Amino acid sequence: MPSGSDxxxxxxxxxxxxxxxxxxxxxxxCEQDAGEGQSKLVFLGDYIDRGPDSRGVIExxxxxxxWSPDEIICLRGNHEDLLLAALEGQDAEQSWxxxxxxxxxxxxxxxxxxxxxxxxxxxLRSLPLFHDDRKRFFVHAGVHPDRPLDQQRTRDLLWIKxxxxxxxxxxxxxxxxxxxPLKSGRPEVRINRVNxxxxxxxxxxxxxxxxxxxxxxxxxxxxxxxxxx
Length: 229
What we know:
alpha/beta; globular; single chain; five-stranded mixed beta sheet; 6 helices; 229 residues
Protein backbone atom coordinates (compact mmCIF):
# COMPACT_ATOMS: atom_id res chain seq x y z
CA MET A 1 0.00 0.00 0.00
CA PRO A 2 1.32 3.50 -0.71
CA SER A 3 2.22 5.61 2.29
CA GLY A 4 0.38 8.79 3.26
CA SER A 5 3.11 10.96 1.73
CA ASP A 6 2.74 9.10 -1.57
CA UNK A 7 -0.92 10.07 -1.62
CA UNK A 8 -0.33 13.76 -0.94
CA UNK A 9 -1.39 16.28 -3.56
CA UNK A 10 -0.45 19.86 -4.28
CA UNK A 11 -2.86 22.24 -5.97
CA UNK A 12 -1.44 25.37 -7.62
CA UNK A 13 -3.91 28.13 -8.45
CA UNK A 14 -3.28 30.81 -11.06
CA UNK A 15 -3.97 34.55 -11.22
CA UNK A 16 -7.19 35.48 -9.39
CA UNK A 17 -7.40 39.29 -9.92
CA UNK A 18 -10.36 39.92 -7.65
CA UNK A 19 -12.52 37.05 -8.96
CA UNK A 20 -13.68 35.92 -5.52
CA UNK A 21 -16.59 33.72 -6.61
CA UNK A 22 -14.41 31.64 -8.94
CA UNK A 23 -11.69 31.40 -6.29
CA UNK A 24 -14.08 30.10 -3.64
CA UNK A 25 -15.55 27.54 -6.02
CA UNK A 26 -12.13 26.37 -7.19
CA UNK A 27 -10.79 25.97 -3.64
CA UNK A 28 -13.90 23.92 -2.82
CA UNK A 29 -13.23 21.73 -5.87
CA CYS A 30 -9.62 21.20 -4.73
CA GLU A 31 -10.75 20.28 -1.22
CA GLN A 32 -13.29 17.80 -2.59
CA ASP A 33 -10.64 16.30 -4.86
CA ALA A 34 -8.15 15.93 -2.01
CA GLY A 35 -10.68 14.16 0.21
CA GLU A 36 -9.09 12.91 3.41
CA GLY A 37 -5.58 12.79 1.93
CA GLN A 38 -2.76 15.20 2.64
CA SER A 39 -2.84 18.26 0.44
CA LYS A 40 -1.31 21.68 -0.04
CA LEU A 41 -2.60 24.76 -1.85
CA VAL A 42 -0.13 27.10 -3.55
CA PHE A 43 -1.48 30.41 -4.85
CA LEU A 44 0.71 32.03 -7.49
CA GLY A 45 -0.02 35.72 -6.80
CA ASP A 46 -1.98 38.53 -8.47
CA TYR A 47 -4.90 38.35 -6.06
CA ILE A 48 -5.84 41.99 -6.63
CA ASP A 49 -6.61 44.56 -9.38
CA ARG A 50 -8.88 44.55 -12.45
CA GLY A 51 -11.55 42.22 -11.05
CA PRO A 52 -14.56 43.08 -8.84
CA ASP A 53 -13.56 41.99 -5.32
CA SER A 54 -9.87 42.31 -4.48
CA ARG A 55 -10.70 42.95 -0.83
CA GLY A 56 -12.81 39.80 -0.63
CA VAL A 57 -10.03 37.73 -2.20
CA ILE A 58 -7.45 39.00 0.30
CA GLU A 59 -9.77 38.38 3.25
CA UNK A 60 -10.59 34.88 1.99
CA UNK A 61 -6.92 33.94 1.58
CA UNK A 62 -5.88 35.45 4.91
CA UNK A 63 -8.60 33.47 6.67
CA UNK A 64 -7.72 30.27 4.80
CA UNK A 65 -4.05 30.64 5.69
CA UNK A 66 -4.79 31.42 9.33
CA TRP A 67 -6.38 28.01 9.85
CA SER A 68 -3.85 25.99 7.82
CA PRO A 69 -0.58 27.98 7.64
CA ASP A 70 1.57 25.00 6.64
CA GLU A 71 -0.78 23.82 3.90
CA ILE A 72 -1.67 27.21 2.39
CA ILE A 73 1.17 28.95 0.53
CA CYS A 74 0.43 32.40 -0.92
CA LEU A 75 3.10 33.89 -3.19
CA ARG A 76 3.55 37.51 -4.19
CA GLY A 77 2.64 38.60 -7.72
CA ASN A 78 3.61 41.72 -9.63
CA HIS A 79 0.26 43.36 -8.85
CA GLU A 80 0.83 42.97 -5.11
CA ASP A 81 4.28 44.45 -5.70
CA LEU A 82 2.78 47.40 -7.59
CA LEU A 83 0.46 48.13 -4.67
CA LEU A 84 3.29 47.97 -2.15
CA ALA A 85 5.34 50.34 -4.31
CA ALA A 86 2.32 52.68 -4.53
CA LEU A 87 2.53 53.17 -0.78
CA GLU A 88 5.99 54.69 -1.23
CA GLY A 89 5.18 57.55 -3.61
CA GLN A 90 2.74 59.29 -5.94
CA ASP A 91 4.41 58.26 -9.21
CA ALA A 92 4.36 54.59 -8.21
CA GLU A 93 0.71 54.89 -7.17
CA GLN A 94 -0.22 56.21 -10.61
CA SER A 95 1.50 53.22 -12.24
CA TRP A 96 -0.47 50.86 -9.98
CA UNK A 97 -3.78 52.60 -10.70
CA UNK A 98 -3.21 52.37 -14.45
CA UNK A 99 -2.60 48.62 -14.07
CA UNK A 100 -5.94 47.84 -12.44
CA UNK A 101 -5.55 49.51 -9.07
CA UNK A 102 -8.75 51.53 -9.38
CA UNK A 103 -10.78 48.33 -9.12
CA UNK A 104 -8.93 47.43 -5.92
CA UNK A 105 -9.65 50.86 -4.39
CA UNK A 106 -13.34 50.48 -5.25
CA UNK A 107 -13.49 47.11 -3.52
CA UNK A 108 -12.14 48.74 -0.34
CA UNK A 109 -14.19 51.92 -0.66
CA UNK A 110 -10.81 53.68 -0.51
CA UNK A 111 -9.54 56.89 -2.06
CA UNK A 112 -5.85 55.92 -2.23
CA UNK A 113 -3.46 53.08 -1.42
CA UNK A 114 -2.80 54.33 2.11
CA UNK A 115 -6.50 53.81 2.96
CA UNK A 116 -6.19 50.02 2.59
CA UNK A 117 -6.23 48.37 6.06
CA UNK A 118 -2.78 47.90 7.57
CA UNK A 119 -3.31 44.18 8.39
CA UNK A 120 -3.89 43.58 4.68
CA UNK A 121 -0.76 45.55 3.74
CA UNK A 122 1.29 43.65 6.34
CA UNK A 123 0.06 40.35 4.91
CA LEU A 124 0.98 41.41 1.37
CA ARG A 125 4.45 42.42 2.55
CA SER A 126 4.93 39.00 4.16
CA LEU A 127 4.30 37.04 0.95
CA PRO A 128 7.28 35.00 -0.32
CA LEU A 129 8.45 35.18 -3.94
CA PHE A 130 8.57 31.43 -4.56
CA HIS A 131 7.94 27.99 -3.11
CA ASP A 132 10.29 25.06 -3.82
CA ASP A 133 9.09 21.53 -3.03
CA ARG A 134 12.26 19.92 -4.49
CA LYS A 135 10.42 18.74 -7.59
CA ARG A 136 8.72 21.98 -8.60
CA PHE A 137 9.50 25.66 -8.30
CA PHE A 138 6.30 27.68 -7.85
CA VAL A 139 6.60 31.36 -8.78
CA HIS A 140 4.41 34.13 -10.13
CA ALA A 141 5.97 35.07 -13.48
CA GLY A 142 8.82 32.64 -14.08
CA VAL A 143 12.61 32.55 -13.93
CA HIS A 144 15.48 33.78 -16.07
CA PRO A 145 16.85 30.74 -17.90
CA ASP A 146 20.43 32.03 -17.73
CA ARG A 147 20.51 32.14 -13.92
CA PRO A 148 20.48 29.29 -11.38
CA LEU A 149 17.32 29.14 -9.29
CA ASP A 150 19.16 30.33 -6.19
CA GLN A 151 20.41 33.44 -8.04
CA GLN A 152 17.16 34.72 -9.53
CA ARG A 153 16.37 38.43 -9.38
CA THR A 154 13.18 39.65 -7.74
CA ARG A 155 12.07 41.52 -10.85
CA ASP A 156 12.33 38.37 -12.98
CA LEU A 157 10.38 36.26 -10.48
CA LEU A 158 7.57 38.83 -10.54
CA TRP A 159 7.64 40.19 -14.09
CA ILE A 160 9.56 38.06 -16.60
CA LYS A 161 8.07 36.95 -19.91
CA UNK A 162 10.95 36.58 -22.35
CA UNK A 163 13.38 34.89 -22.63
CA UNK A 164 11.64 32.57 -20.13
CA UNK A 165 8.55 31.74 -22.17
CA UNK A 166 10.57 30.69 -25.23
CA UNK A 167 13.16 28.68 -23.33
CA UNK A 168 13.13 24.89 -22.99
CA UNK A 169 16.06 24.93 -20.58
CA UNK A 170 15.58 22.77 -17.47
CA UNK A 171 16.94 24.30 -14.26
CA UNK A 172 16.58 21.38 -11.90
CA UNK A 173 12.92 21.99 -11.09
CA UNK A 174 9.68 22.00 -13.06
CA UNK A 175 8.50 25.65 -13.08
CA UNK A 176 4.88 26.37 -12.14
CA UNK A 177 3.82 29.93 -12.97
CA UNK A 178 1.10 32.33 -14.06
CA UNK A 179 1.40 36.04 -14.99
CA UNK A 180 1.03 35.65 -18.78
CA PRO A 181 -2.70 35.14 -19.49
CA LEU A 182 -3.49 32.43 -22.00
CA LYS A 183 -6.05 33.52 -24.60
CA SER A 184 -7.12 29.91 -25.09
CA GLY A 185 -8.37 29.74 -21.49
CA ARG A 186 -6.48 26.46 -21.14
CA PRO A 187 -3.21 25.79 -19.27
CA GLU A 188 -0.02 25.49 -21.28
CA VAL A 189 2.30 22.57 -20.48
CA ARG A 190 5.87 22.63 -21.77
CA ILE A 191 8.82 20.32 -21.11
CA ASN A 192 10.15 22.59 -18.34
CA ARG A 193 7.12 24.51 -17.10
CA VAL A 194 3.36 24.97 -16.89
CA ASN A 195 1.48 28.26 -17.19
CA UNK A 196 -1.86 28.26 -15.35
CA UNK A 197 -2.93 31.88 -15.85
CA UNK A 198 -6.01 31.05 -17.88
CA UNK A 199 -7.41 34.59 -17.77
CA UNK A 200 -10.14 34.44 -15.14
CA UNK A 201 -10.45 38.23 -14.99
CA UNK A 202 -11.00 38.33 -18.77
CA UNK A 203 -14.06 36.09 -18.57
CA UNK A 204 -12.21 32.80 -18.93
CA UNK A 205 -11.56 30.01 -16.43
CA UNK A 206 -9.67 30.02 -13.13
CA UNK A 207 -7.39 26.99 -13.08
CA UNK A 208 -5.64 24.74 -10.60
CA UNK A 209 -2.85 22.37 -11.61
CA UNK A 210 -2.88 19.12 -9.62
CA UNK A 211 0.47 17.56 -8.66
CA UNK A 212 1.24 14.26 -6.96
CA UNK A 213 4.24 12.06 -6.21
CA UNK A 214 4.29 10.35 -9.60
CA UNK A 215 6.27 13.09 -11.33
CA UNK A 216 7.07 16.78 -11.43
CA UNK A 217 4.57 17.94 -14.13
CA UNK A 218 0.87 18.22 -13.30
CA UNK A 219 -1.18 15.03 -13.45
CA UNK A 220 -4.34 16.95 -14.43
CA UNK A 221 -6.19 20.25 -14.00
CA UNK A 222 -9.28 21.55 -12.25
CA UNK A 223 -11.02 24.69 -13.46
CA UNK A 224 -14.01 26.91 -12.78
CA UNK A 225 -15.92 28.67 -15.54
CA UNK A 226 -17.19 32.14 -14.59
CA UNK A 227 -20.54 31.43 -16.25
CA UNK A 228 -21.15 28.09 -14.53
CA UNK A 229 -23.51 27.97 -11.58
